[in-house]
């Protein structure tokens, strides 16, 4: 049994192209059910009719909800407990102040295991160029890994380059989660080359979109999507960016929303660091050179401090980042194939093949019938290292 | 024929280990000749005697001046036109505000072709780690080359690594000059491996030291020397620095002196960039990724961008309040004495004496038979293109 509010929100999520500030206002005034009815009948203000005229006769609400359910997705609306009301309030406030293009979403399509409000509560965005350098991808993966490992949720846009590396780093960690916000519908799942990655993100975190099923990716939709990444997190880290880039757009939006804007420096000759240096120099973004500095900057200093007693050196300390990621991808009992480990860790298969014997020599991995597994007593219990659950 | 002031300054430059704030004060009160006499006789305040007791019977003034002359060096004193009074005023101001270890020098031993006051007027410091990376040395050389090529004087400490690369880059350029400030005497010329470089610097710029002939290098002397590099320039660029380093000390001193502090970013994994990132993140140093950005940051944007028609700005714009008052006290025809100008402007006489040459450099005042007067027209000579002195 689908509630009338949910049906109305599903209709309203398709009736206008976001961001739709007049429609958001109209819904706030009338409630979703009445607002949907009035719009269907063409009885709304000019501004609302202008936003909705092209699609107001198209009611696929029930079908969209069914399709979403079939792919394991749900519609999260302001009427739901899961709605991240507090983070999204920044969009309302900025819109109220006259900022353009940052109206709140009407509803969010969500596929994944985490509650969106809980993820947003611990959210940090890691974004950057698609055409990233090896340095940038390495940094994004490290930051994603370290932040998720400390219980944060790593938000990004699932694009190639920095975004993908950040998600992969987060997935390779023991804790935390990762959330991908798309500029198309969940069932479209752009970019196609990241279909498997999106599945893994949904399995450990969430893939979200404000676009109803079937909506195709478009350049403006990526920019519109960026405001969600900025709004749902307490701060945005730009790892690499050219001088004009989508990542800088997300950072600018984060600034408009009053969120913390951070950028990672790089060699001054690198074109993919130009945008980061400009953000630090001209827009006063905070320079961050480590995941600890990210936590410190977003006011989560306590998260980075290891709990009492865990200060003793771990045997994985000093492992190179890729080796660490391969090690994290090993299970404790069941062996995994190098292919599986490559997929899980995001480390290329030939490197995985080279690293596994090295880890074995270091006493950190062992071969078994089904592949490779983690040496049992080499590493202290992961759960013990995680910070205590916070509100 | 050596003047008694010069002999006194030569004696005083050896009698105390710099920085010697009590001695500097004592000389300001008594003049160098009387101050030298009183100290020789042990008739000074306790603070002055404490600073001078170890060496007050050692008078090698004439010998030191002869030795300096023999190696082509000179003693530059506050009584000389060449004395960089305006830049060094920052040391007095900071000392007056209670900052430790930044007392002005008593005199400077100089070997080289440029006038020190002129070099300081266009001075930018480029400093950094001795154990620099290839990236750091390359950057220092590029910055040194580009800044000197635009007529700036590149100040540094002649150490291995970043310092040497900055000097070399400046020397390789067509214009500008470079100045090395040493933590030992000119005739000692540390580091030994840079003896040829120091000769080349003296040939195109200047090698300076506040230490009389024979003074050996010592760790504290490098730190003491750093304040001269900071004071004699309008800004300090740290190219590479570890988390605790002499370069950071220079940067901190530059900040204390109200000068611009800049740092070059680098890869976050590089230990030689850690200090730069800390300066940007924690001490709010300005990130600079190019020589143009250095010029822009020290307020020499015009130097890098010779724009037409930007002369609408009044030539006294940007003058510090006291400089403006001194300028207003000047007449257009009849020259006035510094005493009259001090009375008229209400600015203390020593400040008037320091400001008048600065205004002259900025093309705003000129000497005449009866004293100082206002420059009549905006004569487009070299001096007129210089920005007015700032506080």
From TrEMBL, chains A, B:
InterPro entries: DprA (IPR003488), DprA_WH (IPR041614), DrpA_SLOG (IPR057666). Pfam families: DNA_processg_A, WHD_DprA. Residues 75-298 form the Smf/DprA SLOG domain. Residues 313-367 form the DprA winged helix domain. GO terms for biological process: DNA-mediated transformation. It comes from the Bacteria. Belongs to the DprA/Smf family. This is DNA processing protein. It comes from Prauserella marina.
């Amino acid at each position: 049994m689908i509630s009338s509010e949910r049906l109305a929100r599903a209709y309203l999520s398709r009736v206008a192209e976001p961001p739709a500030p007049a429609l958001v206002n109209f819904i706030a005034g009338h409630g979703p059910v009445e607002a949907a009815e009035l719009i269907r009948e063409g009885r709304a203000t000019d501004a609302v009719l202008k936003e909705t005229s092209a699609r107001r006769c198209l009611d696929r609400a029930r079908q969209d909800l069914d399709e979403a359910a079939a792919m394991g997705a749900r519609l999260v609306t302001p009427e739901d407990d899961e709605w991240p009301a507090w983070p999204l309030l920044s969009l309302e406030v900025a819109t109220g102040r006259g900022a353009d293009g940052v109206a709140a979403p009407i509803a969010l399509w969500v596929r994944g295991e985490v509650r969106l409000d809980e993820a947003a509560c611990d959210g940090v965005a890691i974004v950057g160029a698609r055409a990233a350098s090896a340095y940038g991808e390495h940094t994004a993966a490290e930051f994603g890994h370290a932040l998720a490992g400390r219980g944060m949720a790593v938000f990004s846009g699932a694009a190639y380059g920095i975004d993908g590396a950040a998600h992969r780093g987060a997935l390779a960690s023991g804790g935390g989660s990762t959330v991908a916000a798309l500029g198309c519908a969940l069932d479209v799942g752009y970019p196609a080359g990241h279909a498997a990655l999106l599945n893994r993100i949904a399995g450990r975190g969430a893939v979200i979109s404000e676009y109803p099923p079937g909506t195709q990716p478009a350049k403006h939709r990526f920019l519109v999507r960026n405001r969600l990444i900025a709004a749902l997190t307490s701060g945005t880290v730009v790892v690499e960016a050219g001088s004009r880039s989508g990542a800088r757009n997300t950072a600018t939006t984060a600034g408009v929303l009053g969120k913390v804007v951070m950028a990672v420096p790089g060699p001054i000759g690198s074109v993919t660091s130009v945008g980061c240096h400009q953000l630090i120099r001209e827009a006063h973004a905070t320079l961050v050179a480590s995941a600890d500095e990210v936590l410190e900057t977003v006011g989560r200093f306590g998260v980075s401090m290891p709990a009492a007693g865990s200060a003793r050196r771990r045997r994985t300390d000093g492992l190179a980042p890729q080796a660490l990621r391969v090690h994290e991808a090993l299970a404790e009992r069941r062996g995994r194939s190098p292919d599986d480990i490559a997929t899980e860790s995001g480390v290329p298969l030939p490197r995985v093949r080279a690293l596994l014997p090295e880890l074995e020599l270091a006493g950190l991995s062992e071969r078994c019938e089904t592949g490779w597994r983690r040496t049992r007593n080499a590493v202290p219990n992961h759960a013990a290292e995680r910070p205590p659950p916070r509100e």
